[in-house]
Every structure is written in structure tokens, then in C-alpha cells.
Write a structure and sequence with these properties.
With about 400 residues, this protein is an alpha/beta fold. Helices cover about 40% and strands about 10% of the residues. It has 14 helices and 13 strands. The strands form three sheets. The protein has a seven-stranded mixed beta sheet, sandwiched between helices. A four-stranded antiparallel beta sheet has the order 9-10-13-12, with helices on one face. Strand 5, helix 8 (about 190-200) and strand 6 (about 200-205) form a beta-alpha-beta unit. Helix 1 runs antiparallel to helix 14 (about 390-405). The two termini are about 20 Å apart. Pyridoxal-5'-phosphate (PLP) binds near residues 101, 102, 131, 177 and 181.
Length: about 400
């Protein structure tokens, strides 16, 4: 067992060697003493975002007034491409910023179903995020479909063989999270998409916990559809709009389930009949939230400036450090590591199990160390690599040790 001082030295040395350390200064400062390890729920505000929002709104809204819609109307596409091309390995015109993740799941599943006529089964991993389950269950009930769930170990994530055993030619679509919200388990997108395609089904990926921290190649993986949010690792702010991805080859053939005027080919012709736009724009519905999309843009640009490969490396090192300290300090106190131990098999957070997790999480928060509670009795430690240091991880875990051991 290393001494606390040795471990602290290790944290300090890692921070000194961290090429991304300067990015910590790019965020609105925390209250002194606060350690924020919950950027995987809600990212922190970049300073640039606050500055630009004030400028952009004063100029474009204040002076440009309604005339600014000339360029505002393009924002969902422009920022969609910045996300798609910069972070997801998508091609131009395949990603759109719109609505919430939940609404986008609904839109894409409903649009995809007619592309697989006669298939009446939706497949979802048992531990996928609740909203993914709810949306699929709601669609299934209304349209007389069946939802088939793939059993998973909630700490290890889904096994390919368990998915395989649930697939057949009745399956229209499979909905999975790239990184699991509870365990942080990372799935092999390319291998799984191949498996899904081998039975003729479509793959819908939820990228909420991977976008901005896990390099992703939607094109290379052959993914059909994807959704994700921007308020976690992309730091776009509470309620910032989500994005959706439709593979170009599918785009023209899918009919949007909600026919809104922003998806109409000639919006201001005010035609009586709806005619969808030719590309991804058909998935727009109503008026997009302009200030929030600017915040998405700034969050994405900060991420691109750091580089997603560098962020991935730092996230692996930070989460390895969480597990290293947990093994030294917490496992002897009855904690379990409820995430994959190999850094290549998890996203950017580590989940710790303890029978008093909820209480300990609250006590930690009272000391200024913000983590997340998740059922059943788990603490999610999310050191977002753009906004966290190795010293943050040290401080959080030593406080947790002292609370749990008291
Ligand atoms: C994996 C996953 N999917 C979906 C959501 C919900 O997204 P939204 O609130 O944008 O609908 C979350 C939120 O935390 C999530 O973690």
C-alpha cells in the first residue's frame, strides 16, 4: 500500500504531465474547494460560451432582429456537421442538432420502422437508459410491436453472444448505448452493428455518454442511426438540444414521423401540403433554440480544440487512477468497482458500489465533492477529461475513504 503522500505526488505529477491541463482554465471557476466529478451528467460552462452568448445575442438578436433567421436557420446543420464530422466520423449532412435525445429516439425509430416492413420486434439492452426503454415501449404499445430485451450484467455491460441470441429476422431495430450510463461499459460499435445487420435489422446508437470522450467512427462502423446529448461532455448547458444522425444512404428514404414546418422543403412558401426536405433537414420539427445551439457550437469547438483522441487518453488515465485509488483505499472498506476494469472497455466514468452509496454521495456533496448517485447503491465518479484534474480525483476519493471509514 502506498502512502497518501506518495499517491498525492502521483496525482501532482500526472497533472504536470497533462497536455490538456490548460483547458481547466477555460471554464467558469468553481467555488473554492469544490470538486466537480459530475460532468457526465451536466458539463460545466466554458467561459467562451458565456462571452459569445452575450455578444451574439446583443448583436444578432438585439440588432439583427428577425433578419437574423437568414443565418440562424442554418445553425442546426452547421453545428450538426461540426459534431458529425469532427467527433463522430460522419459525412457532411448526416447530423442535425434538434430536440432532446428522447424526442430524437422517437423520431428515428418511427422513421425507421417502415424501412423494415413486416418486422415487429424492437431489441434493447436491459440496462439501457430509462428514456430509451420508455420511448421504445411507448412505440411498441401504440403500434402493436414487441420489445425484446437483452440481459446484461449491470457492472460489466452487454456480451455480444447475449445480443446474438436475441436476434432473428423479426427484428426491425436494435437500440444500444455506446457507453452505458450506469457502468460506463463501452460497446464495440463496429462488431455489434455488423451483427445487427447480419439479420437485416437497423442499429440505433445512443451516444450520450460517449460523444466528446470516445473517438467514434459511425461511417466506418456502418451505423444506421444515432442520437446523443450535448449537455454532458460537450458542455453545452442545461437543456441544450441533442443531435441525431441518419446514414446518408437511408436519409432520403426515411419519412419523418412529425411533419413540422422546419422540415418542409420550402418553409416560407406556406404550402398547404407537407413535402419533406430532401436530406437530414426533414427531421427538424419546430423553431430551433438558437442561443442554445450557439452554446452547443462553443462546447463542440472547445472539445475539438483539445482533440478527442487526447481527451480519450486523459479519460482512460483519470479513470485508471480512480480504480487505482479505489483498490488502495475503498475496496478494503467494502466498495466494489462496478465498471469494466480495462480502460479500453469503458467510457469516461467509473462506478463504485457500496451498501451506503446514497448516503455517502450526499455526505461527499456536503463537503463540496460532487458525484452522482445511481441505483442500486452506486456512486458514479465522472472526471470529465476537459474539466478535471488528477488532483480532483485524489481529493474526491480520499474524502470518500474518510467518510466511509469513519
Ligand atoms: C444514455 C442516455 N440517453 C438519453 C438520455 C436523456 O436524454 P434527453 O434528456 O436529451 O432526452 C440520457 C441522459 O442522461 C442518457 O444518459
Amino acid at each position: 500500500v502506498e502512502s497518501d503522500t506518495d499517491l498525492w505526488e502521483r496525482a501532482v505529477a500526472s497533472d504536470r504531465a497533462d497536455p490538456l491541463a490548460p483547458f481547466l482554465e477555460r471554464f467558469v471557476p468553481l467555488y473554492p474547494g469544490v470538486v466537480y466529478l459530475d460532468g457526465n451528467s451536466l458539463g460545466r460552462p466554458p467561459r467562451d460560451t458565456l462571452e459569445h452568448l452575450t455578444e451574439v445575442m446583443a448583436e444578432e438578436w438585439g440588432r439583427g432582429l428577425i433578419g437574423s433567421w437568414d443565418h440562424w436557420a442554418e445553425l442546426p446543420f452547421l453545428v450538426g456537421d461540426e459534431i458529425g464530422i469532427g467527433l463522430l466520423g460522419a459525412r457532411p449532412g448526416e447530423v442535425l442538432v434538434s430536440d432532446s435525445t428522447s424526442v430524437n429516439i422517437y423520431k428515428l425509430v418511427m422513421a425507421a420502422l417502415p424501412a423494415r416492413p413486416g418486422r415487429r420486434v424492437l431489441v434493447i439492452e436491459e440496462d439501457n437508459f430509462p428514456t430509451d426503454h420508455y420511448v421504445l415501449a411507448g412505440i411498441a404499445r401504440r403500434h402493436g410491436l414487441t420489445v425484446r430485451t437483452v440481459p446484461v450484467d449491470i457492472d460489466a455491460g452487454m456480451q455480444l453472444s447475449d445480443l446474438e441470441s436475441r436476434l432473428d429476422d423479426e427484428v426491425a431495430l436494435v437500440c444500444l448505448s455506446h457507453v452505458g450510463y450506469r457502468s460506463g461499459a463501452l460497446l464495440d460499435m463496429a462488431a455489434i452493428t455488423d451483427l445487427v445487420h447480419s439479420v437485416g435489422a437497423l442499429a440505433l446508437w445512443d451516444l450520450c455518454h460517449s460523444v466528446g470522450v470516445v473517438p467514434t467512427d459511425l461511417t466506418g462502423a456502418g451505423a444506421d442511426l444515432a442520437v446523443g446529448c450535448t449537455y454532458k461532455y460537450l458542455n453545452a448547458g442545461p437543456g441544450a438540444p441533442a443531435f441525431l444522425y441518419v446514414r446518408a444512404e437511408l436519409g432520403q428514404s426515411l419519412e419523418p414521423p412529425i411533419w413540422g414546418w422546419f422540415g418542409q422543403v420550402d418553409q416560407f412558401a406556406m404550402e398547404a401540403a407537407y413535402r419533406p426536405r430532401p436530406g437530414i433537414g426533414r427531421f427538424l420539427v419546430g423553431t430551433p433554440p438558437v442561443p442554445a445551439i450557439y452554446a452547443v457550437r462553443d462546447g463542440v469547438r472547445l472539445t475539438l480544440e483539445a482533440g478527442v483522441d487526447a481527451l480519450r487518453r486523459k479519460a482512460m488515465n483519470l479513470t485508471d487512477f480512480v480504480i487505482y485509488l479505489a483498490d488502495q483505499w475503498l475496496v478494503p472498506l467494502g466498495f466494489g468497482v462496478a465498471s469494466p476494469r480495462q480502460s479500453g472497455r469503458r467510457g469516461a466514468h467509473v462506478t463504485l458500489a457500496h451498501r451506503r452509496a446514497r448516503q455517502l454521495r450526499d455526505e461527499l456533496a456536503a463537503l463540496g465533492v460532487i458525484t452522482d448517485f445511481r441505483t442500486p447503491e452506486r456512486i458514479r465518479v465522472g472526471p470529465a477529461p476537459l474539466a478535471c484534474s488528477f488532483a480532483d480525483v485524489y481529493t474526491a476519493l480520499i474524502r470518500l475513504r474518510d467518510l466511509a471509514g469513519a
